Amino acid sequence: LYPLDGGRTRLISRIRMSYNWLSPAILFDLALDVGDFVMMRQSILGIKARAEGQPVESLYGLTVELLLWIMAFIGFVIAEVWIIIRQDWQSPLAVAIAAASITILLVLWKPPLGVDALFTTSIFAGLWWAFQYRAENKEND
Fold first, then answer.
1. 21/19 Cα distance (integer angstroms)
2. 28-51, pLDDT tens digit by residue?
3. Hey, is 3 helix, strand or coil?
4. Which residues lie closer than 8 Å to 93 by C-beta, 6 or more apart?
5. How many whole angstroms separate alpha carbon 86 and alpha carbon 100?
6. Is the separation of the CB atoms in 75 and 124 below 8 Å?
7. Do 45 and 108 contact (CB within 8 A), yes or no?
8. Is residue 131 packed enough to be buried (19+ CB in 10 Å), middle (13-18) or exposed (0-12)?
9. CA 28 to CA 134: how far, in whole Å?
10. CA 113, CA 78: separation in Å to the nearest integer?
11. 10: three-class secondary structure by DSSP
12. Is the pTM of this model over 0.70?
């Protein structure tokens, strides 16, 4: 805790991690790093809410929110794998960029669960569109 003016304080959390870039575990370390950002942000927001006397979010709401974030990230991973596997990469790339943007937006903005679900559903609608677009273009060739 760092004191600020007006009797306020600032909570700062720092984590240091060194990477072994040649280790097979590097992918796990990088994924853990991203997950740690989300977990620490949630933790610090919870501490802030308690310190300000705000009601604490329900465990159900937090669980649904986390599942929607995971689903959004899975949509991003599907689009990325599709880019690597397929020859036509333009439509999956558009979906991957949208999915990455939506995932970051959901984590940082923390919209209501209905909006969160709508955005996550739009990622899979985009994947479906990209698949249909590819199928139509394949038939025309």
1. 6
2. 777 777 777 777 877 888 888 888
3. strand
4. 79, 83
5. 19
6. yes
7. no
8. middle
9. 32
10. 23
11. strand
12. no
